[in-house]
Amino acid sequence: KHLVSGEPNLVEGDRGQVHPEIIANCQRELKSNLMEKFQCVFEGIPKAGNPTLLNEIYTELYITEGGTAEVNEEHEVRQIETASWKPDRPETTIRLQPEDLFKASAGRKKPPRTVLTKGVAGIGKTFLTQKFTLDWAEDKDHQDIEFTFPFTFKKLNVLREKFSLVRLVHHFFSETKAAGICRFEMFQVVFIFDGLDECQLPLDFHNNEDLTDVTESASVDVLLTNLIKGNLLPTARLWITTRPAAANQIPAECVGMVTEVRGFTDPQKEE
């Protein structure tokens, strides 16, 4: 699906052609590095070496789907101004697994591009994104995704220079730079942005200039607002986590699904 028409064995890249073997090696390397990074995250959990326990803890996290302000295209301009976080349908209290995050559901015609996950401090939002990434890196789940790029707002805050979106990805995930992969629109990509409540960037959705070229440099703030609005890489999927108080920094019309981490379903697990 990410191949260039008429050239079944090549994928187009900014530095000539990127061979599938190079892409596969890049994915392997990225997965290996993410595994190394996130496996050690679980050292604080008793018997962290036991993967079964990790999965048990993980599946006990109770995620519910809230509503989202869906915009009617006919009255889009007026609605964008008045869109709010009031659910457009009653909150469902089904337990969601992260593999369901980017799927169409009963009340949704198409899969959401951007998922916003809310939860109070320490409830397990970061844990959730790390486990999602680890499952992808270990080939356990989410194998329709070709690249997963986990970012934290804490690290994005300190970037003062201008970046293009391509260079930003290369900066944090050097495996993609080494492979010469620049055409991320040709892949199924998930960007994870953890900790919106820690974001110190203005995220000025109304006044930031529009940007559609992934190779054009801008401030990280401008890159993020354009990525979230879908001006940059509209085919990418985004997952943003936040404490509830900061959720309204993202305009409702930019969010396809809102979920909330409610913590552990079994009170004993909290011990």
UniProtKB/TrEMBL annotation:
Keywords: Leucine-rich repeat, Repeat. InterPro entries: NACHT-assoc (IPR029495), NACHT_NTPase (IPR007111), NLR (IPR051261), P-loop_NTPase (IPR027417). Transmembrane segments: none annotated. Residues 113-246 form the NACHT domain. This is NACHT domain-containing protein. It comes from Gasterosteus aculeatus.
